[in-house]
Amino acid sequence: MLYGLYWQEVFPWRTPEDETPECSSPVSGDHIVEVLDLQPGQILPYCFECLEGGWLDFAVSSLFPIDLFVCTGGQFEKWADLDFDATGITAFESRKSIRSTSLSFEIPRTDEYAAVLVNHHQHPVPIVVFARPIDPQAADTR
Fold first, then answer.
1. Residue 10 main-chain phi, psi, to 5 deg
2. Measured in Å, how far apart are the chain's first and last C-alpha atoms?
3. Is residue 40 one of the residues assigned to a domain?
4. pTM score
5. From the CB of residue 35, how many other CB atoms can be counted at a distance below 10 Å?
6. DSSP sequence for 75-132
7. Cβ atoms within 10 A of the Cβ of 11, count?
8. Helix boundaries (H) for the chain
C-alpha cells in the first residue's frame, strides 16, 4: 500500500467505482488544493486510484526548484525499495528542477498512480499543489 494523500481520504464518499454525479463540471468538485512546506529531503507522493480512460490533472508551484515524477503505485514502491535513487524510477512523466508546472495525464489502465514531489534542498520549500482525478465518463466531456 502506498503512503501519502489519497483523494478518497479527502472525499471519502467517492470511490473509483462511483458514477460521476450529474453536474455542469466534468470534475464534479473532487480536487485537492494545498499550500505547504516541502521539508528538506522530503519525498511527498500524492496517490490516486484512477480508472482507465480518465485523466489526472496536477499542478505545482514552488519558491525554489523541485522535482516531479508521475508513476504507478508499483513503480513508486520499487523506487522506495531503491532508497529513492533517482536513476531507479520509471516514470510516465519526469520534470526536474521546476518551479512551476502543470500536466494533464491520460490514465492508460486502471491502477494506483502517484504524483511525487521531491525537495533536494537543505531548507523547506513553500509549494502550492492542485490535483484532480477525472473519471472516464467525465473525461469524455472535457
1. -80, -35
2. 31
3. yes
4. 0.76
5. 9
6. HHHHHHHTTT-GGG---SEEEEEEEEEEEEEE-SSSEEEEEEEE--SSS-EEEEEEEE
7. 16
8. 7-10, 73-81, 136-139
Residue 116 resides in a domain: yes
Per-residue pLDDT of 74-98, as tens digits, reads 999 988 888 888 777 788 899 999 9
Query: Exposed, middle or buried: residue 130 (CB in 10 Å: 0-12, 13-18, 19+)?
Result: middle
b/e burial code for range 42-69 (CB count within 10 A of at least 16 → b): ebbbbbbbbbebbbbbbbbbbeeebbbb
- Whether 113 is covered by a domain: the verdict is yes
Residue listed under C-alpha cell 469524455 = 140
Pairing status of strand 55-72 against strand 93-106 = antiparallel
Please report which confidence band the pLDDT of residue 66 belongs to, taking 50, 70 and 90 as the band edges: very high
The reply to whether 18 falls in a domain is no
Helix (H/G/I), strand (E/B), else coil: 81: helix
CATH number at residue 100: 2.60.120.680
33's grid cell: 488544493
Is residue 49 within 8 A of residue 22, CB to CB? The reply is: no
Residues spanned by the domain of 109: 5-10+30-139
CB 126 within 8 A of CB 42: no
Structural domains counted in the chain: 1
